[in-house]
Amino acid sequence: MGMENTTRQELAHAGLVYGKAAYFFDPQSPPIEKGREMIKKSGCRRCHTIGDKGEHLATSLDTSVRLKPFETLKKSLLQPVAFMPNFHFHQPQAEMILGGLLSYDTGGDQKQKTETVHFKKEKQTQDAFSRHCGGCHRLLSKTQGPLGEGIAGPNLSGLFGRFYPNDPAIGVMGPKELSRWLKNPRTLKKVARMPPLDLSEKEVKELIRTLE
Fold this sequence. Notes:
The structure is a single chain. By secondary structure, the protein is mainly alpha-helical. Helix content is 33%, strand content 5%. It has eight helices and four strands. A two-stranded antiparallel ribbon has the order 1-2. A hairpin with a 2-residue loop joins β1 and β2 (53-54).
């Protein structure tokens, strides 16, 4: 239902939720269940809070999904910003995900505190991540903001968090596993494409701090 007290189409239709997202009022509907499943498999909570759960590397989706226009939200999934992984969602998938987000009744997520990520214009060249990892990976770091420029490897934002979509062949990646991985990835995954890195212990510790 639109706004009956206006003859202007853009106002009458303002804020409408359409497509598969429109099922959000029924969390048990197949499109919304699928949307919630995609949220989990994509690891959205590695950076965002959803349903009062998740990391604080980026804005709370409990808040933004209720404040931003529907088309803006959908575009952010179909054409993600630089440091958001590109999952190559198509339109029905994006609508199901948005429906899944809307189905969480959090009252606008007023209880959540979101960390601020400082985006710097100048390139980071001195930190260990930019030197050794940034050519293939990207990262939103709690301490250093956005790092890296590569897309050949996975986005490592929230790597040590419990919401990161871990590789089944590796399992949970913690500081100890990362140290082993950096020395020789094939000790954890026999078909790993990443080569071993010749890093000092100081550089390994710096990378772990950056990823935490």
